[in-house]
Amino acid sequence: MESPFKSFGREVSALLCKAYGSLGLDAEPVVETPPDPSMGDSASPCFNLAKLARKSPVALASGIANAIRGMERDTVYRVEAAGPYVNFFINEERVVEMTMDAISKEGDRYGVLPPTGNKVILEHTSANPNGPFHVGRARNPIIGDTLVRIFRKAGNEVDAQFYVDDMGKQVAILAWGVNNLKPGDITAVEREKHDHKLVVYYQKANALMGEDEKVKAEIHDLLRRTEECEPEALDYVTSVYTGVLEGMVESMERMNVRVDSFIPESNVVKDGSTARVIEALQKSGYAEKEPDSKAWGVDMAQFGVTGRSTKFYFVRSDGTSLYATRDIAYHLWKSEHCDRMVNVLGEDHRLEAKQVAECLKLVGAGKLPEVVFYSFVSLPEGKMSTRRGRVVFLDDLLDEAVGRAYDEVKARRGDELSEDEMRRIAESVGIGAVRYNIVKVQPEKAITFKWEEALAFDGQTAPFIQYSHARCASILRKAKEAGALSKPDSGKLFHPSEIDLVKSLAKLPDVIGEAAETCKPHAVATYAYEVAANLNVFYRDCQVIGSGEFEGARLSLIGAAKAVLANTLDTLGIDAIETM
RNA sequence: GGGCUCGUGGUGUAGCUUGGAUAUCACCGAGGCCUCCGGAGCCUCAGACCGGGGUUCGAAUCCCCGCGAGCCCGCCA
Asked: Domain holding A65: CATH number?
């Protein structure tokens, strides 16, 4: 069923078109949201009509409003001319009825859109499995997983894919290090997780490679063998990186991030698709061979790329493929297995993504990926750098957040909750705070990591939203204990705070749909806060339990708000807890 | 040198796609609110569209020129 605001929006446009017609105005109506709710739910400015009709916008507005007042209406309750604007007020009774009805029918599934029949392959994280996540890299799984959840709620079948770079330099260095260095060569780490224990081998091997020609030669030999997909070489690196990957998966799982498929890069070499991509590019007419070399490239200048070098190579002088070549093959494969491709990439991949996209066109791909780029997270003292030891590991951030959440719960409710309950709540609150803090900001904005912001539990944060949800749960529990028998009656909802809350609940399906359409996870984060804030205002203004004839309606409203908060939090991958 | 992205109160941030009325919200700061369903809450006050041009009746929003920050310009990934 269509959401109240969608119906309203369509009706407003239709009414305006009819009014324009009856007044002989040949123009496309403009509809916008007024700055203040007291001015209505939608508005149409009449400035652009002034020239056309040779009348003042003020006169036009009142003429249009008068014309519309005579028309039959459904969700549009009131039409008013206010200066040069025509303001439309939604029929609040209908909004309440439609929304409460939908929520009571659909329950937890309210906000889940009907199936689109589309399959979406959403690639995210795809980090080199050579060490633990730091908070910069953590932006990828959080944005990615939130998008996965958004797309699922928007009615799509989604495959969340992690493209594992098993042929690259990073894993080769790691593998060499693990197999050639002794524990005495490296500095010990406290954490038992494999990604933390193994990354030090990578770091040491990386350093040695720069000093020792023999090491460099051995690593390059290994790299050459993995690039040729020599089975022993691939097994060799795989046996090492799986340990790191396990550690990374563990961190992701702790954050409620789940990947459906791990696709090793070597797949697209083994199955011959990379070779086919190379051939297709060579025949495309846009590629050229380097003289006296097997190397091939496409000059990207013809596609608007500028800079010191515009040449994009897809075959090396020794005839082997490059990372981007294989990435094209991978994307070609994806394009044949889904209706929509979405990638979450760091901003450093912008040029590569452009090169891949242009080449996909050249080889006749049916569709191109939609890419969400995110900017990097830096520290107040500068760029994050693993080499210089200037990093904050994700695991440390999660531990710290959960620890602080634990202190908070213990201080508030230490005497009524069991140790186990407090631990569970702390985990949900701490993890939620971290996820929300990262996802609430537009991906393309750079973030400077500050502990006090990452660990904030009040204001626009996950704990605030979780708290609102728990508050609903608490009221419903209390009502049940008190044996509240009041019948739901949405006709009894008319306090302004009740209406505001219902209006925000009504938006959920639109918010999900729009977030999926525009790939904007932060829109859901903003919405979650809006609902929670409206809930708290309602809570302040309206007594629920013991409110007599209003009790039934208000209990339903609390139930509806709880369902929306739970569903919205779930979309953000944050636990909707019953108590905290 | 060239390109891409970003720039909104002290700090962080929404709005920018599709120009429109008084620019959203949070943190910090100042002041206030529990005999009442959970104070991780609520209320009041203070404070911002990087600069300059242009388009327009109208620009945070579109265009151009600057400035500042990030990222990229490898037969690496």
From this structure: 3.30.1360.70
Q: What is the DSSP string of A226-246?
A: HHTT-HHHHHHHHHHHHHHHH
Asked if A322 CB < 7 A from strand B, the reply is: yes
Cβ within 8 Å of residue A97, ≥6 positions away = A490, A491
B strand bases under 7 Å from protein CB: 1-7, 12-15, 17, 20-23, 25-28, 36-38, 40-43, 57-58, 69-77
Cβ atoms within 10 A of the Cβ of A303, count?
17
In angstroms, how far is CA A308 from the centroid of its own chain? 34
End-to-end distance of chain A based on CA atoms, in angstroms? 35
Strand B reaches within 7 A of the A425 CB: yes
Query: Is A41 inside a domain boundary?
Result: yes
Q: Residue A489 has what pLDDT?
A: 81
pLDDT at residue A437 greater than cutoff 80: yes
Which residue, A64, A90, A116, sits at the end of a domain?
A90
Residue nearest to nucleotide B17 (CA to C1'): A518
- Asked whether residue A318 is domain-assigned, the answer is no
Residue A109: inside a domain, yes or no? no
Q: Is the CB of A537 under 7 A from strand B?
A: yes
Model pLDDT for residues A312-364, shown as the tens digit of each residue? 999 999 999 999 999 999 999 999 999 999 999 999 999 999 999 999 999 99
Domain boundary among A207, A224, A258: A258
Please give the mean pLDDT across all residues of chain A: 94
Q: Which residues contact A334 (CB under 8 A, 6 or more apart)?
A: A121, A123, A161, A341, A369
Sign of the dihedral defined by the CA atoms of residues A96, A99, A105, A110, in that order: negative
Nearest to A508 by CA among A100, A87, A119: A100
Q: What's the CA–C1' distance between A48 and B53, in Å?
A: 25
Distance CA A572, CA A336 (A): 29
Identify the band that residue A488 occupies on the pLDDT scale cut at 50, 70 and 90: confident
Identify whether A523 is part of a domain: no
Using CA atoms, how far residue A270 sits from A78, A263, A281, A506, A537, in Å, is: 66, 12, 19, 50, 60
* Domain of residue A225, residue span: 168-258
Burial of A275 per CB tally in 10 Å (0-12, 13-18, 19+): middle
Gyration radius of chain A over CA positions:
29
Q: What single DSSP character describes residue A459?
A: S
DSSP state at residue A385: B
Q: Residues of A from 244 to 283 whose C-beta is within 7 A of strand B: which are they?
A: 265
Furthest C-alpha separation in chain A? 90
**Into how many domains does chain A fold?**
2
